[in-house]
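Regression test attached.
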Amino acid sequence: MKRLYSILVENRSGVLAKVSGLFARRCFNIDSLAVGTTDDPDISCITVVSSGDKGTLEQIEKQLNKKINVIKIKTFAEEESISRELMLVKVRYTAKTRRDIMEICEILDAKIVDMSKNQMMIQICDTPEKSQLLLQMLNGVAITEVARCGTLALPKCGLSD
Amino acid sequence: MIGADAVVKCLEKEGVTTLFGYPGVAICPFFNSILNTKIESILVRSEQNAAHAASGYARVSGKAGVCVATSGPGATNLITGIATAYADSIPLICITGQVDSNLLGSDVFQEADITGAAESFVKYSYLVKDVSDIPRIMKEAFHIAQTGRKGPVLIDIPIDIQNKTIQNFRYPESVNLRTYKPTVKGHAVQLKKVSKELGRAKKPLICAGGGVILSGAQKELCDFSHKYKIPVVSTMMGISAMSSSDPLYYGMIGNNGRSCANKAMQESDLLIVIGARIADRAVSSPDLVAKDTVLIHIDVDPAEIGKNVGPTIPIVGDIKHIFNDLAKDTVQCNFKIWTDTLDRYRNAEKPRKKPHKGYVDPALFVTTLSNRLNDRAVYVADVGQNQMWSCMYYVAKSGRFLTSGGMGTMGYSIPAAIGAKMADKRLQVVAVCGDGSFQMSMNELATMAENKTDVKVIVFNNGYLGLVREYQHNTYNKKYSMVDLGSYPDLSKIAEAYSMPYLRLSDNKDMEKAIDDLLATKGSAIMECIIDPMDTVK
């Protein structure tokens, strides 16, 4: 079972280590992790996607709540949230493959953000599944580098009314 | 006023009268400032024992124990002591010196990232980077250590911060931690359910853990149990929460617990677990308990509830508060048939097999010793076979039984006994250890001798690391490895080296007199009991 945790923490040095260390120590999975400040510069938001059985997912929330620097935890299932991740993919192209790549990008709503004589960089900002699909579609061409950020998520608007 | 003075001032404001420590350059400003106060600083012989002593102190005084060490190896030596306290939820304030803050991270002499290294064993930790933060940090540290689920808090202070001048020292009256507000009162709706279940139950049972003692709710537990005549069992940490002579108390549960207590756990239809985490050692397969039993789990730490066993009714809050709230309700119930059954189980228990002639029976010894101790005496058990014997045969009156339950740290008893004695010098204190655990902290005999700390040390000497030997005996078909301690050291000479009276017991028939002689000794003393090397726990 997958679950998303949106963890509001005090924006201080060492807090991320305390939170990620907790996952490591108690053998909780981190499928992805992203951190950034919120509208309040004193508060950061750590978004973690984790998976496990019901008991584990509940323990994660309880153990996180025990951390002194953790202010609030919102947790939700994938379908209750809008989640996005950013991925940059560098591919090697030839005159023969260029058109194909551009078409894939167009279909999947990805953007070409940089290019040279034989390489181009593609940016996608979408759900993790979409990013994965892009990688699959580009499988035929030579991918040289991939950088991918953790998932960001917020509960759907209707849920927080 | 410099940072070090401020730290000492804060300790005074918190009412600290005793601390345990070991110096080094990085903590010297602090130990210089402590000279100007009435706080008694006890120099131990290794940092780990400073933490254990602070733990013993905390458990008897009910306040956070304070231990202080230097940077690098001093700080890392503290870790086992910190982890031991963390596992048993003992409030500690651990202060460590650190290298100059400008040099942090550059691997200079005696630098260790102690806040990082101790992260998983502390309730919280601070690395002080600004001298003006000291009063706030100290106030918060004591608050965090002593409230909610108690535990150790580490404060790491670079030497330059200790030496820096602090302007306008003011100790805060209150703490302002928006992220930390432990639940004290139990939820009213949940509490109502307890009464409802009690009215319905036929075979209720209370399982009391260390949380009962940490919350100071021993009396409330007894009152609640007596009101409805509900039988009580305890975990290892819950020993001494209820007197052994109480007819409703059926002893410790677990692999090494009493069979009547374990049977009660299995057969009960309403299990009220209070301040216990139901770990593997107490209940071999937690699933068994929860199958058809209504399980009420009361704990101050919400994360403990449902961690090992899924409860039917979870209640989060301070145990004393919860008992007081439960006492307001009254339900009609009668559990006589159930307690009669348990009494039958208790009476049917077979006595332990007698050891060979020429050796002391440790079970008989523990019973005889604890019977002869003062009512309020502190009994500190170490780890190993001696701990099992102590847990099973200790006779609880109104005193305290201390041991390292969660972590099982060998060498705990002597330093913890020193701390316990320092917390209340009127109390009779005994440390019971094996020859293995004795040798892990016998350096503290010097601390006892120097400070004239009256602790009676009892060593069960069987020449083996007995509990591991027993495990190898059963698991590896008598192939022993790394467990033979041989016959050194000569304990009579150790006692002589520290100018302590030495008593030796090798026969059960001399036991009572020997124990009386030991307890009548003025000041500390060592008693060696010769135990059959092949003696087993059960």
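Expected vs. actual: identical. The two ends of chain A are 26 Å apart (CA to CA).
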